C-alpha cells in the first residue's frame, strides 16, 4: 500500500498537528484518511488520486435511528 508522505500531508492540509490534518482531509473529501497506531495520519495514494480525479465519492450518509424513550406512567 502506497501512502502520502508526512510532508505531502502537511502541504495538502496546511497543518502539522495530526488531528487538524485529519479534520482537513475529511473536509476535502478524503473519507478514507485515518490515523495509525502511532498517531500519524495515513492517506493512501490511490484514494488521493481517485478523489482528486473525481472518481471516488464518499458513501452516502444514512440516518441512525434510536428507539423512542417511553416516559414512566
Task: Please provide a written account of the structure.
- This protein has a domain at 6-53.
- Strands 1-2 form a two-stranded antiparallel ribbon.
- By secondary structure, the chain is mainly alpha-helical.
- Strand 1 and strand 2 form a beta hairpin.
- The model has no long low-confidence stretch (mean pLDDT 90).
- 37% of the residues lie in helices and 5% in strands.
Large-scale geometry = elongated
The tally of beta strands, per DSSP, is: 2
Q: Structural class per helix/strand content?
A: mainly alpha
Order of helices and strands: HHEEH
Helical content (DSSP H or I, runs of 4+)? 25-40%
> In this structure, how is the largest beta sheet organized?
2 strands, antiparallel
pLDDT < 50 runs, ≥5 residues: none
Q: Please work out how many helical segments DSSP would assign.
A: 3
